[in-house]
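Batch 3, record 17
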Amino acid sequence: MSSTDWRPLALHLSVIGVLIACWFLLPAYHSGNLARILVLAAYASGFNLVFGYTGLLSLGHALFFAAGLYGLGLSMHHAEVAALPAWGIGVAAAALVAATTGALALRTTGVAFMIVTLMFAQAGFLTVLYFGQWTRGDEGFVITPAARTAFGFDLADERVRYFAALALFAFTLLLVGWIVRTGFGRSLVAIRENEQRALMLGYNVQRIKWIAVIISGAVSGAAGASYALLFGYAGASFASVQYSILPLLWTLLGGAGTTLGPFVGTLVMFYLIDYASELTDAYLLLVGISLIIATLFLPHGIVGTARKRLMRWLP
Amino acid sequence: MVQPTSKSSDSSQGPATADTQATTPGSVSRRGALKTLVLGASSLAATGTLPGLGGYVQAQSAAPIRIGFQVHRTGIGAAYGRWYDRTSRAAVAKINAEGGINGRPVELIAEDDGTDPKRGAEVVEKFVNRHHCDVGFGTLFSHVVIGSSPRAGELKLPYFVVSEGHHVASGKLNRYTLQPGITDVRSQVQAMAPFVSSTLGKKVTMLYSDFAFGHDHRDFFTDAIAAQGGEVIATIPIPPTETAFTKYFPKIPRSTEVIYHVLVGPAVLTFVKEMGEFFGPSSPAIFGFIDSLEAVDIASPGLEFLEGSHFWEGHPRYAQADQSEYDKAYRKAVGVDENGASVSDSRDVSTYAHMFGCWETLHVIKAGMQACDYQGPADRAKLVEAVESIDKMPHSMEHPQGAKIFNGKTHQVFGHQYISKVEQSRLNLVHTTSIEDTFYPDEVDYTTRTL
Amino acid sequence: MEFGPHLILALLEGSVTAAVLALTAAGLAIVFGMLRVVNVAHGEFFMLGAVFAWFVTSGLSELANVPPAPAFLCALIVAPIATGAVAALADRLVLSRIGYDPERTIVATIGLLYVLQQLTLMTYGPEARPVEAPFNTRIALPWFEQGSDGWALYWPWGFGTTSYKLFVIGAAAGLLIILWLLLRHTRLGLVMRATQQDRDMASAFGIRVNRVYAMVFGLGAALAALGAVLVVPIQQAHYLMGGDPLLMSFIVVIIGGLGSVAGTVVAAIMIGLADGVVSVFFSATLAKIIATIAVALVLVFRPHGLFGRRSA
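Prediction for the assembled complex:
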């Protein structure tokens, strides 16, 4: 991959262009779904930076998503902070949590890293329940519609919501696309491929991993804060272990270590559930079977397989 | 389940309708839809045989009223969801047999929310933008209600929940969210205090699930029992995922006269059983919310210990000696025998204390739609106002659980509460509260908010 | 209750948790040690064990009027075998075909988790159903106290356990010893260890590696099912009951040093007892927060588990 290769950037920009066009072409139902998918895809992209590019399998990203969600939610709900600064608080909270837990968790590797991140996230989930007086625990709370405005736009408006979600996703996509082309991004891949070698080549492996975790945590937190802000609800289910597994699933299905994989995975999973639930009550059965089939026949995920078979330049 | 009837003629809805057809088994295949497009005007006549288009052309007034039914088919609420489903279908069958609403048949459009607030909100969007439902209905679990309600408010979909949470009356939700078919936890809990303090004892220890529903019980009951001259002497929260309970019981103070328990989740049977094993023969009086044992047979092995204890019931599970004719007919309609189990399988115990809420809510929707002469989605705001102006609901076939009073300002209904005693593995009604026992000062006036 | 009896009670309860956890986690440890894959569906095998136990016991009592004790014994044999067979089938159909690739295995077992949960929901239903214990007598326990005339025994309020709970602890211990003998002293154990140490060499010696893998996967699932059958008369069978055992087994396997069965059992006992004892001192949710962070910190400062070697 030469550093002047223009194709990845062109691809990313055209994906964003298509998504802009989608607002005008799709019926309300699908554009509404797409708004959700874009926010969640941003979350998965943040996860992918650590998992797909650095090779660190975190099972605790719900902690960062929830830090963003509650950073925004609690400051708006209890301190009446305006939406934009509250969003900033959410992202900062997530970055801070990522920096702290990351510094500890990165002392471990492999399966131990999985469990440590899982445990931190579980502690975070239980903390949300424990402080039920503030968080209303599992039940959660509604973020007042009147406060959900930014730059004079009403974020509860369908169009504003869609483009806000798209802006978040586009920023994340371009950010990840840019990072993986920098020296920093290449050092991430070097660590993933062979950590010992990266160490011998003089990389400060621990520090690089730590920065990757912080960026990933901040992006996940931005997605969490945006989800609460755009859809008006914060609750403990978003901090549960399920929301740590989901980005892993989306990323693996779409293609780990590809910039577009997380988006494709999130999109496919969403519509798989949505359509399967119309066909049958047993839609989880269809989803389960589809996942098994995907692992059997698409070993590198959808985009990853496309890269291997068709377009080697795919970012 | 999904009918391709599209009452909205908004052109942007076109593709969605085509998709619906393509994915609906037994209706129109994609090929059929394409063929229709390709063959053009000459074959337009043939499309009259397609159920969707034919219905649409014929008569607006004959098209069914579409009630989006948000049901917990999977996830932690599945046992409740199954009975909410059966009760709602029975109510719709009754309403249709009696001529429907405003001369139109009623159709339930069921969507599983997985007992998850995120999916719940998506389902609400689906009701509005894909299924073109007139109203949303049927949600039980509080977190799903609170997660879904903002979207219902934004999309201006009248959203009738059957949740018994205090969320509606607390003012946290919006003008479009109503709870007219089941009382809320605050009034239930408050109405128990006089009976508990006068009959069972004044020193109460509470054991409850350590999440919002349990906290509501703790807070409301602590105040209510204090007003009766009693006292909560210990509160023991139990994490909702807990599966072993014996270790909590030593924290119950020796001076306890009454144990008040409310736990939700699949492990509650263990809880009751282990409580029995802990106390052996020398237990304090026990008072519980039947939520702990909904869909569970009181005669299950291990529950012998409950003999002589008391339960709150939303609606007496076992047919009582003085059973009303309405309860009798309602039981028959939903397929429940006099022990509260399915008529087809005596081991399939119903969620009798809650599911009447679905039946009654659907009848409130009918009453509201008739009062405002509801014609279609354009009349949704009128429907909300019509329901807000409902006041008294007499004990009747529409309200088999008992008479109720609806508070249009707080969007919450108030009604009788029942207390039963376990005698020979059967719940016998021993006390019925008045509706007034359940009143508390309004916390919100939704009618002042914009429609 | 006074501190002494309370603590003993918490330890007794913790022992039951530990016993079931040890069996379940040993299953996960064997699979991990051998195949080096994380089986996300392990909790579902636990659930299947409990559900099969319900089908066996309620079927026998309804169709043939079999009393609880023999029906339970029957479940104790049938449920693990049936669960193991399901797992072995999943291994042949899916895992072996993706070459036990760690990442793909995670997605595949998540898929398997959905399939098993949904199938159970469709056949068994959403209710929590009890299985009758073969025997269950309440045993009141004594405590001693220094009164005016020296030490005296008395029976504190609520201080007791049940005969079935004691049986669970004993049975789990017995089963773990049998497992150890099986792994150490039988041809099967030898074959398993040989395959684990050098797959190609084992293959060259005529061991049918694929069959061994399927057997190991089935054995792991059967152990989870065994734990579930033992605990189902105390808890109940429910289609979503697999989440907690999965999480706890994960923790125990890692603390125990990744795939070491002995370490796993010791870790299970520690964690099970801690779970009981911490609840004596803290509010339950706070106790769980502290315990989770403690587990994380143990791993941070002992990355290979408390009992693992650095080379693990």
